[in-house]
Each structure stands twice: as C-alpha cells, then as structure tokens.
C-alpha cells in the first residue's frame, strides 16, 4: 500500500509531536504508529479526539502530502481503529499502523480483481479482501466500484485456495444487511454445484455451506421490523427493491433440486473427519429444516428421509467429534420434533394423491380382499382393525404420521398378511385391531417424546431412539399384538392392553442416550406378559390411573406449552438484567501453551438490549457496579449472528484456576462444564465465557437458545426440570379444580335438632 508519507525522520523509531488537539507540551507517548515505508514514531494520542482528527494531525506532523481522508489507522491484527475502539487502543497502548483508508483500499482491491493477470497476486488480493470486506466503509466502496461483479466472476472460474478465499470474502460480505441483493439464481446454482462435488476441498466447502445457509435465512419474513409489521397488517412485508431479504428456502431449494446429488453429498459430509465441515453441514441442514416453506416442505422432508439423514445423525452421536457437535445435534432433534408434530397434525385426505398412494400400498401389501358384512355394507378397512371405513376419522388424532407408521410397519414385516389372517380366523370379539393398535402406539410414543407442539423441545440429551421412530413403533406394535394374545384380551380390553404397552415402552425407552439398541429390542420382543403385568400393578399402586386418560394427557400437553413459554420469558429477563462471566480460552486453543497467558481483562459483563437484537458487553480487569441501561457496555454482538450456543467447550485461564483453587492448573486446560461459546457460521466463536455457577449457566445458555427464531433447544437439565415441574404442578391444580367441579352437592338436607347445650361457645370467656 502506498502511503505517500514524507518527513525528515529516517530512523526506524523517532518521536512525533503530540497529537492532543493543539498542545505541544511533551508528554509520555501512548502509542507507536508505523507507516507503510517502515517509519515508526512514538506519539501521544488524546482520547477525546475522533479518529479523523488523529489521522489528520498525524498526516500534518509527518508531512503527508495526500489528503488525510485517504488514510486510516489499524492495529497489528489489522483491526480498523474507529471512534468506538480508539480509547481502548490508547489505554492498552496498542501498536498502530497508518494505512490506506478502507474506501481507498477497496478501490485498489477492486482494480486488482479486474486485472487478474497474475495468479499469485490474485490469490493475495483475495486473501486481503476476505479480512477487510466485513468493514462497512470498505464494503460500500468495494460495491460501488463493481467489485462484487468481479468477485462473482472469480467464484465461477477459480479453483483450490483461490476459490476458497473468494467464497470466504463473499461469506463475510453477507454478514452485512446490504450489498448482495444482486446475487442471482446462477450464482446460487454455482454454489450448489461446488458443494455437490465430492472432490471439493474442505476449505472451499466451509464458506460455500455458510453462503447457502445465509441465503436460506434471508427470506422476507426475517427482515428487521417485518415481524412487527406483520402483526399489524394482513399482507406480506413490503421491502425495498435492494433488500437482501429476498431469498429464503424456496429460492435456494429450487437450485438445490437442479444440483445432482447435492443433499446426498451434504449429508455424507456429516461423517467428515473435519469437525468444522461436519458442523457446517449440520447447521445448513438445520437451517433448511427451520425455514422450509409450506409448498416444498413435503418434498424436502421426503428427500431427507430417502437419504437416511436420521441414521447419519445417529452415527454422529457416537462419533469422536461429538463434543463440538452437541448443540447442532440437539437442534436437529428439536427440528425433527417439529417435523413429527407437523406430520401428526396433518389430516389424511383420501383424495390427496400422496395419501391415496400410501393407502393403496397398505391394502395391496395386506393381501386382503374386500367384501360386505352381514348388513350389506362394504368391509375393507375394518378387516385391518379399524372401527369404521372412514379413514379420515380413523387417522384424525395421528394424521400423516399414523399413516406412515402403519405403512412402514407393514413394509418391515413380510409376515404381516399372516398376522392379519390369524386375527381374522378368530371370533370377532377376540381379534386384535391391528390398525387401531398402530395408531394407539403412535399416540403413546408422541407423548413419551413430548411431541406436543413445534418449538417446545426440552430434551437436553441425545434421543437416538426417537430418530428411529418408525422402528420403535414397529417393535411396540408387535408387542401390542403379542400382549393381546397372551392376555386373552377381548374387544372391551383395548385400553387395558394399551396401558400394558405404555408401561413397557417407558421401561424399554429409558436412558436412551446411553442404552444400546439391542436392549430395547429385547424388552419388546422377549419380555413375558406376566412380568409386564406384575410391574404394571406395582406402578398402579403408586400412580393415579387418572393421569393416563386421554383428556388428562391433552391437558398436560397444553400446560407443557404454557410452562415452556413462561420459563422462556423468565430466561430472557435474566439476559436483560445482565451478568458477569470469565473470559475463557477459546475451544480451538485449549491445547496450546501460548493460549494460556493471562488475559489483560479476564472479566466480561453482558446484557441483552430491550429490543432483543444485541448482546452488549464490556471487558474489565475487575468487576464493577454496572449501571442499568447500555452506557457502560461499549461493545456488542448481534443476536442474529449467533448460529449455535456450544456448551462445555472452553477452559478457564490458569490465573482464574489459581484464584479459585489451591490445586495447580492442568495442561492442557480442561474444558469447564460451566462454559459456553457463541458460535457464528461465518466467524467461528464470537464469545467464550464461563458462568459463575450452574444457575447462571442455565439462564444464559437456554435463554440464548430460546431467543432464536426456531426456538433452538434446551441445554440444561435445570431448565427442562423447571418446565416439567411447572407442567405437573399446573396439572395437579387443574385436576383439583376438576375434582371440585364434579362433587355432587346433596339437596334437601335435614338440619336435625339443635344441641342441648350451647355454653361451649363461651367456655373460655
């Protein structure tokens, strides 16, 4: 970079007049400033000045001929000095560099991209571009110079590291809420093709995945202020023509469909040895699940199911990279709770082609022949065990989920026709209603995994058996049929057998985050009726049978949602009050001795603003009384930039360990269970903190998760316990109300004769 600086000083280090608004009194220098020519001067910068004033006086003192507007200050890490961070740079005596202003640097960078005459120069230009393009001044000038057009052209033709740098530059530009609204379908398809290629390098796939994720999330309903506007109007949000919030799931999915093997390749990368690659792929899948549009939802989910995405995630649960992927996997679980709930609440329509095709497959695979009953009415679906021939009514409570479960139950068992024939060979009163039993199992599994409503998942552990819902359903339905036969049940015993199966399901599916699958199979296939019945009788002695009734289960589901929302508001209030945390060692540096040096400011106070858009914070060497409001908190993190809250990932600095324990610090530092990291799909970790106690950790990790548009997931057992406790307390109170309302008050009471002696009223007087 050409600085245009001239001056009489020719030594590597010299002194400059004081930059303090006019005073020439010699004072102790605060910083050193180095020019592009290698000239380094000591200078004292007055913190009351603006950056423009500092640069102007430096240019005057150093006799720079060019306009001061062409220059700016950066620190040794190339962070731009602004009015917001100038005082901090002065206070910590950071070494500064006098360099090209962002606008000037952007113009020169855009010119170099146009030339593209030397591969090495182009690569270095892109490497610099990916650092600076996050800055608004640089980005605005770069866009005005048509630099974005040249960057896109490079992405279409580059390979290897050059492509990786170009994609990373585009990824960083897209952190801004402007400047990339011109990205068209051809560009999106190019990124899809890059990701579809199994030969693409990992450092290419990471930014490409992040770009697609950003495009998926940039739908019109996500634009700032649109949610508030939507609540006061009926039409779609009206956005300016240059808004970047013009993409979304539908736009991206249209190009994904054209990319051969795109989803298959993304899902295969979940097994990548590179943890960051697996994490980016998981975050993209979660983003697609969270933003899937109604028109493409069924097609997208069907494609994911076809590619066995659930099995890929289950394998990931037990892999060696699990520590870094826990939060993303829990998000995936929460997303599939929403998928399952949507299927369960989607009503069956026999005229709907997709539903009709499944029904026809069920009938064909059953190998039954329709007939008429003794009254002359059609006898078809009742042969499978339904109560009526009205399938829309039969699947009313379980929807498409029940239909799919019955279909897969039949597909998994080649002997299903024999099962039906065996039931039909029995007297009508002794037949097990297989189809009705299938729907009942769907209901009890939905209750077991709390599939009550979208956005209300409180699971803090992995649920691999839930992700194998259809297989568990098949096992439990076979168990239902077996218990029906072993208990000699008749048509009036359906609820009794259902209670047996419900009891066994609780036992078989317990501790699913640590239990092997073969034990689940054993509990359903080998357990005898007598043992199940004996255990159930013991349970009935302890539990009120009223709690298993359908109206009570529905009431619990309603109270569960209300309790979740109550705890969510409480957690967000904790964020708005603010709290002190320890600045932790980042996850990727806990194994480096260089990373264990004592931070200059080990404490951080964070507070959520009333608009729920930013986390404001201040770093400090010591704790101090922070005033209400945001005046004491100069720095901030955008909540929308937080794509994941990872827990238990970072360690306390050694000096903090020494302050809190007599034991010497370990090396490498051990990750604290009270730590959490705010991760961005673009920048990695935005913050690494350690909470002072378990309650504060639960407040913040769950509060930040609950702030997310998709509801995220609950990280702590404490929060999950609060939701469950409030639900049970509310349920008991409601049942007390119901019990009181059902008491029959007698009428026509006879008072009887008055007491013979009333002196007892005054016996103590």
Query: Span from first to last CA?
Result: 103 Å
Determine the structural class based on helices, strands and strand pairing: alpha+beta
Number of helices: 29
* Percentage of residues in helical conformation: 40-55%
| Radius of gyration from the alpha-carbon trace, in angstroms | 33 Å
* E-strand count: 14
Are there runs of 5+ residues with pLDDT below 50, and where? 1-18, 227-233, 590-598, 657-665, 739-745, 758-765
Q: Tell me the strand order in the biggest sheet.
A: 11-10-9-8-14-13-12
The percent range for strand residues is 5-15%
Largest sheet: 7 strands, antiparallel
The pLDDT mean sits at 82
Coarse morphology? elongated
Give a description of the structure.
Keywords: Apoptosis, Phagocytosis, SH3-binding. InterPro entries: ARM-like (IPR011989), ARM-type_fold (IPR016024), ELMO_ARM (IPR024574), ELMO_dom (IPR006816), ELMO_domain-containing (IPR050868), PH-like_dom_sf (IPR011993), PH_domain (IPR001849). This is ELMO/CED-12 family-domain-containing protein. It comes from Favolaschia claudopus. It holds the Pfam family ELMO_CED12. This protein is an alpha+beta fold. 49% of the residues lie in helices and 8% in strands. The protein is built from 29 helices and 14 strands. The strands form 3 sheets. It has a 7-stranded antiparallel β-sheet with strand order 11-10-9-8-14-13-12. A 5-stranded mixed β-sheet has the order 1-3-2-5-4. Strands 6-7 form a two-stranded antiparallel sheet. A hairpin with a 5-residue loop joins strand 2 and strand 3. Helix 3 crosses helix 5. The N and C termini lie far apart (103 Å). The N terminus and C terminus are likely disordered.
């Amino acid at each position: 970079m050409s600085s245009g600086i001239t001056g009489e000083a020719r030594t590597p280090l010299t002194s400059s007049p004081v930059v303090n608004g006019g005073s020439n009194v010699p004072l102790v220098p605060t910083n050193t400033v180095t020019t592009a020519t290698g000239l380094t001067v000591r200078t004292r910068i007055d913190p009351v000045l603006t950056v423009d004033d500092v640069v102007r006086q430096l240019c005057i003192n150093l006799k720079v001929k060019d306009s001061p507007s062409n220059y700016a200050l950066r620190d040794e890490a190339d962070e731009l000095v602004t009015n917001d961070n100038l005082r901090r740079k002065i206070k910590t005596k950071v070494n500064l560099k006098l360099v090209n202003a962002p606008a000037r640097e952007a113009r020169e960078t855009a010119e170099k991209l146009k030339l593209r005459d030397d591969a090495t120069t182009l690569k270095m230009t892109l490497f610099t571009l990916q650092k600076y393009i996050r800055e608004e001044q640089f980005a605005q000038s770069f866009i005005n110079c048509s630099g974005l057009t040249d960057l896109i052209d490079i992405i279409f033709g580059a390979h290897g590291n050059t492509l990786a740098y170009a994609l990373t530059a585009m990824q960083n530009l897209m952190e801004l809420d402007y400047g990339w609204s011109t990205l068209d379908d051809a560009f999106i398809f190019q990124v899809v093709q890059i990701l579809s290629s199994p030969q693409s390098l990992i450092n290419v796939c990471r930014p490409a995945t992040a770009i697609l994720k950003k495009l998926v999330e940039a739908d019109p309903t996500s634009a700032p202020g649109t949610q508030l506007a939507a609540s006061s109007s009926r039409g779609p949000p009206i956005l300016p023509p240059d808004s970047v919030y013009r993409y979304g799931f539908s736009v991206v999915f249209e190009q994904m469909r054209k990319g051969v093997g795109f989803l298959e390749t993304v899902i295969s990368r979940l097994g990548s040895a590179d943890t960051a690659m697996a994490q980016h792929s998981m975050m993209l899948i979660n983003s697609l699940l969270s933003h899937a549009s109604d028109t493409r939802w069924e097609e997208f989910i069907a494609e994911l199911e076809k590619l066995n995405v659930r099995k890929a995630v289950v394998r990931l649960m037990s892999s060696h990279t699990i520590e870094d992927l826990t939060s993303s996997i829990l998000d995936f679980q929460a997303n599939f709770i929403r998928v399952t709930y949507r299927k369960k609440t989607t009503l069956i329509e026999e005229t709907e082609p997709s539903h009709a095709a499944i029904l026809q497959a069920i009938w064909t695979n059953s190998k039954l022949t329709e007939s008429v009953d003794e009254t002359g009415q059609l006898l078809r679906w009742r042969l499978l065990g339904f109560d009526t021939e009205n399938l829309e009514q039969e699947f009313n409570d379980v929807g498409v989920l029940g239909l799919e479960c019955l279909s897969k139950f039949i597909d998994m068992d080649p002997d299903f026709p024999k099962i039906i024939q065996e039931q039909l060979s029995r007297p009508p009163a002794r037949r097990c209603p297989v189809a009705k039993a299938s729907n009942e199992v769907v209901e009890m599994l939905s209750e077991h995994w709390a599939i009550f409503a979208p956005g209300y998942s409180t699971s803090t552990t992995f649920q691999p058996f839930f992700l194998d819902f259809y297989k568990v359903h098949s096992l439990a339905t076979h168990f239902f049929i077996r218990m029906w036969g072993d208990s000699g049940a008749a048509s009036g015993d359906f609820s009794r057998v259902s209670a047996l199966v419900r009891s066994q399901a609780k036992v078989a599916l317990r501790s699913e985050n640590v239990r092997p699958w073969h034990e689940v199979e054993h509990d359903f296939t080998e357990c005898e009726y007598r043992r199940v019945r004996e255990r159930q009788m013991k349970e009935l002695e302890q539990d009120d049978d009223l709690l298993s009734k359908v109206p009570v289960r529905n009431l619990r589901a309603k109270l569960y949602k209300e309790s979740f929302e109550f705890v969510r508001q409480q957690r967000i209030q904790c964020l708005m009050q603010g709290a002190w945390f320890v600045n932790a060692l980042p996850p990727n540096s806990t194994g480096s001795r260089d990373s264990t040096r004592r931070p200059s400011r080990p404490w951080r106070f964070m507070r959520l603003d009333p608009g729920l858009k930013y986390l404001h914070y201040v770093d400090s060497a010591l704790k101090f009384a922070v005033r209400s409001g945001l005046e004491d908190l100069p720095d901030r993190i955008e909540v929308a930039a937080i794509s994941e809250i990872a827990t238990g990932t970072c360690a306390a600095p050694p000096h903090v360990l020494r302050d809190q324990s007599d034991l010497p610090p370990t090396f490498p530092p051990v990750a604290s269970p009270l730590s959490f990291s705010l991760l961005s799909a673009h920048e990695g970790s935005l913050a690494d903190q350690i909470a002072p106690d378990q309650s504060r950790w639960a407040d913040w990790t769950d509060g930040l998760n609950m702030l997310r548009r998709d509801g995220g997931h609950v990280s702590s057992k404490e929060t999950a316990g609060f939701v469950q406790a409030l639900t049970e307390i509310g349920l008991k109170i409601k049942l007390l109300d119901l019990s009181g309302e059902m008491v029959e008050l007698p009428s026509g009471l006879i008072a009887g004769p008055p007491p013979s002696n009333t002196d007892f009223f005054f016996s103590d007087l």
